[in-house]
Amino acid sequence: MTIAIVLLALFGSAWLLAVIEGWITTGRLSPAAPLYSGLAHLGRESILPRSPDRVFFEAAPVLLLVVAVLGMAVLPLAPDLVIADLGTGGLFINAALAYVLVAVIMAGWGPDGAYAMIGGWRFLGQLIAYSMLIVMPITAVAMRAESLVNTAIVGSQESLWNIVYQPLGFVLFFIAAMALAFRAPFDLPTAEGELGGGVDAEYTGVRLAVLRLARLTLVVTLASATTVFYLGGWYGPLLPPWAWSLIKTLAVAVSMLLAGRYLPRIREADLMRWCWVLGIPLALVNIIIVGLLILVVP
């Protein structure tokens, strides 16, 4: 029962996110638009490239979707609403999301196309850099909770959310989440203006539908992780715990979409340099600050 509820919440949130994305893009609010788009993709021919690596090409969209679902499996929506409350849940999130890289590299290599391959290798450098900004803020969060259990991390925020306790960590984690989901302005693997869609370019029909669902689901999973680690998870007045988790998750996911509309795309060289030169030192500073706060403030 728990599995069904969490999956329903995950894909329902992805549906709402697709509706909101369409509203932001076109100015028209149509709850049925994702259904029409999905049916349109299902009705189109799935064209194969001339000389693909068929295993990589077929498996990449499915793997990306599986990764997003696996990440959500350890994120609690309520104290008793989590599929697997692992003792190393915080690290499991980072380990599961590492396979986003595998899926995107497969999507770039599989079609045997120049633009797709460039997009895949771009994401390789992007994730190697920004994965550090996922695991290092999680380290600071676990220090305060004295646990890597995600329900314990939420419990440690009952009196004060981590966004207030360690705002620098929140900013770094949010930026890294956008980079991991390759949302604009971190959409270097797709970059329609430069690569004509990049890793998405060679996918059509059902495969493209699965890939787009996987990308939206990944955004929801990362937004849920942000909620668990920094926004107090299920804590909030009046409404039931699961409702607060979903509201916060959707708010974070929508903010990711909106940020991409108002920020310019960054050159890949600058994107890497800013992370290594600025992001990682700031993440270390955040860990030091949190450590000092734990020692000084009882």
UniProtKB/TrEMBL annotation:
PANTHER family: NADH DEHYDROGENASE SUBUNIT 1, NADH-UBIQUINONE OXIDOREDUCTASE CHAIN 1
Protein's UniProt name: NADH-quinone oxidoreductase subunit H
Organism: Marinobacter azerbaijanicus
Keyword terms, alphabetized: Membrane, NAD, Transmembrane, Transmembrane helix
Transmembrane region(s): 55-78, 90-111, 123-143, 163-182, 216-236, 242-263, 275-297
Compartments, as annotated in UniProt: Cell membrane; Membrane
Main location: membrane
InterPro entries, per database record: NADH_UbQ_OxRdtase_su1/FPO
Chain segments annotated as coiled-coil in the UniProt record: none
Family: Belongs to the complex I subunit 1 family.
Pfam families on file: NADHdh
Membrane topology term: Multi-pass membrane protein
Source domain of life: Bacteria
